[in-house]
Design brief:
Its cofactor is dipyrromethane. It contains 10 helices and 13 strands.
Length: about 300
């Protein structure tokens, strides 16, 4: 076994660094006395802060630079927020493990209202995600949605300064940064389905780096792994990437994996939602079959109409 440090690549945002330190601790517990180092890498999404994510040319704006560092050998392990990691495989790299998943939901933050249902007609809500926008408009067509980018701290400040009525963020990020006191309500998964992989951390290695993969597999959580395999198979089969509103929930009860998926038009007027269960040993089948069900119900026409609208 080599004695050089294991270098772990991450974005430099406060949330990314929290996640990287968490992974470093988990690895140190299995890999000691070898040193684990954290290497910060700036991604395209970190550099360009003034454009809507949906217009930044799509896939991998928060992950590609870290994957490149992994391929170059600058780092040995990439730590990603899994929901930012495209499902398209990168030759030479392998998603190797997912530690236990954090909270999966989306939450309302607001200085004025306690609950989503308290929002008055025409209230202004900030979000940078097409998935959140479409699901909010499907539930409440009267609300006004505006773009908001930036780290979580920045967004909280902008909401206060600009008098915005509310904002939707992932619960996991707020909890991890100790900002849980800002959460007013976890939005019901009945209508706000989280992003594929939300709340999970993905650990990616070079496919041929057997030694690192061995250590990284030691911090894997099998239930999280099965759920994210199913969720990502659904997304990959639908082929929507990040430019189309797709949401999902998953659960495992007594060896059965249940996946519920939704596809919407970006304006929220059209929505499909469907559910499928299968053995936890076959997560890829559950995901691909649920996607096929959504396609038979017309998912492709919803996705295609969005592709035309966004031009
Ligand atoms: N780049 C957005 C991003 N990627 C991961 C998280 C939060 C943590 C997670 O959902 O895993 C966030 C912020 C948000 O959506 O509020």
């Amino acid at each position: 076994m080599s004695e050089r440090p294991l270098r772990l690549g991450t974005r430099g945002s406060p949330l990314a660094l929290w996640q990287a330190h968490d992974i470093a601790e988990r690895l140190r517990a299995v890999i000691a006395p070898r040193i684990v180092e954290i290497v910060r890498i700036e991604t395209h999404g970190d550099r360009i802060q003034d454009q809507p994510l949906s217009q930044m040319g799509g896939f991998g704006v928060f992950t590609r630079a870290i994957q490149q560092a992994l391929l170059d050998g600058t780092v040995d392990l990439a730590v990603h927020s899994l929901k930012d990691l495209p499902t398209i495989p990168v030759p030479g790299l392998a998603l190797t493990a997912t530690p236990p998943r954090g909270p999966v939901g989306d939450v309302l933050l607001s200085e004025k209202y306690e609950r989503f249902d308290d929002l008055p007609q025409g209230a202004v809500i900030a979000t940078s995600s097409l998935r959140r926008r479409a699901q909010i408009l499907n539930e409440r067509p009267d609300l006004r949605l505006i773009e908001m980018r930036g780290n979580i701290d920045t967004r909280l400040r902008k909401m206060r300064e600009q008098g915005i009525d509310g904002m939707i963020l992932a619960e996991a990020g707020l909890i991890r940064l100790g900002l849980g006191e800002h959460i007013r309500e976890v939005l019901p998964s009945r209508w706000m389905l989280p992003a594929v992989g939300q709340g999970a951390i993905g650990l990616e290695c070079r496919a041929d780096d057997a030694e690192t993969r061995h250590w990284v597999e030691a911090v894997n959580d099998p239930d999280t792994w099965a759920r994210i395999q199913a969720e990502r198979a659904m997304l990959a089969t639908l082929g929507g990437g990040c430019l189309v509103p797709i949401g999902v929930t998953s659960r495992i009860v007594a060896g059965t994996l249940t996946l519920r998926g939704t596809v919407l038009s970006t304006d929220g007027t059209r929505r499909l939602i469907d559910e499928l269960s299968g053995p936890v040993e076959k997560p890829l089948n559950v995901g691909a079959e649920l996607a096929a069900q959504l396609v038979s119900a017309g998912a492709n026409s919803i996705l295609a109409s969005d592709a035309i609208d966004s031009r």
